[in-house]
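A reminder before we start the practical. When you read a complex entry, don't treat the lines as separate problems. The point of joint prediction is that each chain is placed relative to the others, so the output describes one connected object in space. Small molecules and nucleic acid strands, if listed, are placed in the same frame. In the example below there are two entries. Take a minute to note the order of the lines before looking further.
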Amino acid sequence: MRRWKLGIALPLLLLIGSVVVPFSVSLYATRVWTVAMMNAILAMSLSMSISIAGVVSMGQAGFYAIGAYTAAVLSTRLGMGAPWTLLFGGLLAALAGILLAAPSLRLRGMYFMLTTMAFGEVVRLVALNWTGLTRGPMGIAGIQGIVIFGRPLSVREYYWTALLVAVMCYYFCEFISRSDYGLACKAMRDDDLAASVLGMNVPILRISAAALACLWAGIVGALYAHLYSFVSPTPFNAWLSLTILVISMLGSLLDPVFSRRASYFGTFISAIVLTWLLEGLRFLQEYRMAFYGLFMLLLVVFQPQVRALARSLGSYFSGKERTSVAA
Amino acid sequence: MVQHIVNGLTLGSVYALIATGYSLVFSMVGMINLAFGAVLTIGALLALQIAVEYGMGIGLGLLGAMLACGLLGWLTDQSAVEPLRRQRLPMYFALLSTFGLNMVLQNIAENVSLRSWQAEFKPFPAPFDITEITIGSIRFSNLDLAVIGTVAVTMVALHFYMTRTWGGRAVTMTASDSEVAEVMGVNTRWVIAFIFFASCALAALAGTMMGIYYGSVSSSLGSSPGMKGFIASLIGGRGQIAGAVLGALILGLMESLAAGLIGSGYRDLVAFLALIAMFLVKPTGILGGAQTR
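Here is the predicted structure of the whole assembly.
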């Protein structure tokens, strides 16, 4: 009973809280909340591809950049509007994901991760050097904002848009994980030989799981382009990819706190927490990154302890000992 | 064309030192130490500080930098890698933990160097007079020769250490099978800590040579070569010194040809594309064996 309450009440509370957030904080804080939502989308879609298919990407910033640049070029060259740029940004990023995942099917573990990391760098370097399309280090400026009912969105409305996309992404990830497709992916992740004997198309499953994460990264990228009306190669570095990966890792560690019916809730929370942590560390000024790096290091090293803490919190909330499911 | 090849050789030999550092660590724990780039930078900064600012000469500067960076390598092992090994976590988590450490070290190097020098770049005077040598249409300086020579001597010394001495055999043994090595009385924890020490000392040497070669040092010195080094070690063959040297020379040549013939913006792109291509063709690298999952 209590588990049910937590599983429904907490997300509901959070949702109401998130909707009213911009009324209580400054415009600057609203912007940070918007960034948190965008990080949440990136991390949740990555979490999904990790948890269902075991596809760990260290190059999400690359797909994010593809989405952002697609939206920027379509908007400035062709004058395309918001829903279409988001769609094409997502599709192009997904296509890039397919093109990367298809040849690297044989790679496992660290080699796949390093390939994706190299791909992320390749995207950034192409954006830096293909000056004909991307204007290189100068970036593309003057991207139109999202216009609805003939009126550009305000900062608050951008936040709500990002929140809406994040909620959509959340339910998308939950739905995919529970669908037959998600179960097939999990079978493949645990033992791809057994899965292929059972008639599953292992290559298609792996490629599509990677592509789904890239699709969302592309959509958020397009959102980014409209929000800032400026894209340059600088922010899409390996550091951003790693940040997204750390958010999704903390999210999966926090998972046992919440109901088992909400597998991506932890990632959502951890995106908010880590985005605000990075903002909160501003008082350290130039030493901010050192502390963020230290946090990352400690999180990885102490992850069994964090997981155990999350477990005991989860069983406290749900009122009974949680039977551990094989993740 | 030939000129680019000569430049590529010098570049490749510096990469060879860095790639060897990666390979040594890879052969021990099967992972890439992403904190290497920052250690490289710190090595160059320290060598410059000791040799020029304190006026103690390049020999002491190099020695101090190598010792300090070796200690940083040991610290990397103890803080970011050893705990994962002890808890038997998958080694790819070490990519994340060492990247975190990289951020810490990089950030400290940036701030300290900026604060103490009040400038982003600091000239690193060469310890001897640079003379240009021209043979036909090819030009190179005695600095090129010094870099290639130092790397060659270091690699030969390392090779002898690994094959002819007791300590080197303990390292080789731990790399091929740490459990058997443990049974045979090798303290594998010490061996691994020593390898982290040695690889980071090599990074300091590489960083110092780059500083002298380019004539200046900045806090962003190590980030790009740090990446290139691991690309070279993976292209050549994971965990092998010969592979690391081969991969580094190939990468150095490719980069300098790309920079000379296509445009300098493409040198980094070529390196990353080469890594992806190598993984797709043969994930274990040119000299690597069959792939084991």
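Discuss with your neighbour: Residues 2-281 of chain B form a domain with the ABC transporter involved in vitamin B12 uptake, BtuC fold (CATH 1.10.3470). What might explain this?
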